[in-house]
Amino acid sequence: MDILLHICCGPCLIYPFSVLREKFKVQGFYYNPNIYPQEEYAKRKDALGVLEEYFKLPVIYPDYCQSDYFSCLEGKDCQVRPRRCEICYNLRLKKTAQYAIDNGYKVFSTTLLVSPYQDHQLLKKCGLRLAQESGLEFYYEDFRPGFKEAQLEAKTIGIYRQKYCGCKFSIEDAKNEKQAH
Question: Residue 3 phi/psi, 5° resolution?
Fold first, then answer.
């Protein structure tokens, strides 16, 4: 069976891919208009390109259009987590689900499920809701136990490992957390 896997970044692909390739034929989908600035997007895309070749994993790269992200945030309080995260998860997973429908996939998931920095229950809720709305299956697995191992592998391979979630707001969050320690 095929699965369409939303990929947030290269390092977060490593562990989920190792699990999923045992159960599915995996197709990657790199849709992340939330990533800011564009140079950061390019670094993450390049890192994924290395893993695409390394794993022989086909990846679809929809156009990078930051306005997709910012238009979803208009009129909403985006300084507050988890609200902005929920909007972001919904945007990216909805686009993944739509691609899945349009291209005959029955199952989709996301590498966001590996990160201990993401709101896991909110991600699961969003994925399951979109699956129900679209008639697809959302493959849920808690990949977090493999996060540190994957980060070490990414370092060994020599791919870019980012210092913040990706959005403009998370840059400030990362700076504030660093200053607090």
Answer: -135, 140
Phi and psi for 26 in degrees, rounded to 5? -95, 135
- Domain total of the chain: 1
Residue with tokens 């998931």: 109
Phi, psi torsion values for 5, nearest 5 degrees: -110, 110
Residues 47 and 101: their CA atoms lie apart, in Å, by 27
Looking at residue 163, its amino acid is K
Structural domain including 14 reads: 2-180
Please report, for the domain that includes residue 53, its CATH number. 3.40.50.620
Per-residue pLDDT reduced to its tens digit, 119-145? 999 999 999 999 999 999 999 999 999
Does pTM surpass 0.85? Answer: yes
Structure tokens at 23: 């159960």
Q: Please, what is the end-to-end C-alpha distance for the chain in angstroms? A: 46
**Other C-beta atoms lying within 10 Å of the C-beta of residue 111:** 26
